[in-house]
Specification:
Elements lengths: L2 H6 L13 E2 L2 E2 L2 E2 L4 E2 L10 E2 L6 H9 L4 H7 L5 H15 L7
Helix pairs in contact: 2-4
C-alpha cells in the first residue's frame, strides 16, 4: 500500500499551536488540541500538560526510554492517553517550526 493512500484515509488531528502562552481549543479560528499550556509560574514556563505539572519533555523522555503509553498512564494517573499524543504532536510542530517558542 502506498503511504500516501494510508495517510489520505486518516482523520486529521488538530494541530498544537502556541498562542498567548496557552495552547487552547481554538484561537482565531485555528483548531488546536487544548492540552498543552505554558505558565511562567509553573516549571519556569516550560510546556506542560494542561492542569498538571507534567512537562512535555518528560513524556517524550519516557517514550524514548521505551516506556509504553500504558506504563506512563499508570505512573501518572492524572494524564490521559490524549495527553501523550498531544505531547508528541507539540514536539513535532515545534521542531518543524510551526509553533511559537512559548
Amino acid at each position: 500500500m502506498n503511504p500516501d493512500d494510508e495517510n489520505r484515509n486518516r482523520t486529521p488531528r488538530p494541530e498544537a499551536f502556541a498562542t498567548d502562552n496557552f495552547i487552547g481549543p481554538e484561537k482565531d479560528g485555528i483548531p488546536v488540541n487544548g492540552r498543552i499550556e505554558t505558565n511562567p509560574k509553573v516549571l519556569a514556563g516550560k510546556p506542560v500538560i494542561r492542569g498538571t505539572r507534567v512537562p512535555v519533555y518528560l513524556i517524550l523522555e519516557l517514550l524514548a526510554a521505551g516506556n509504553s503509553r500504558q506504563e506512563i498512564l499508570k505512573e501518572y494517573p492524572q494524564l490521559a492517553d490524549e495527553d501523550i499524543t498531544a505531547a508528541m504532536e507539540y514536539a513535532s510542530q515545534l521542531l518543524r517550526g510551526e509553533l511559537l517558542d512559548a
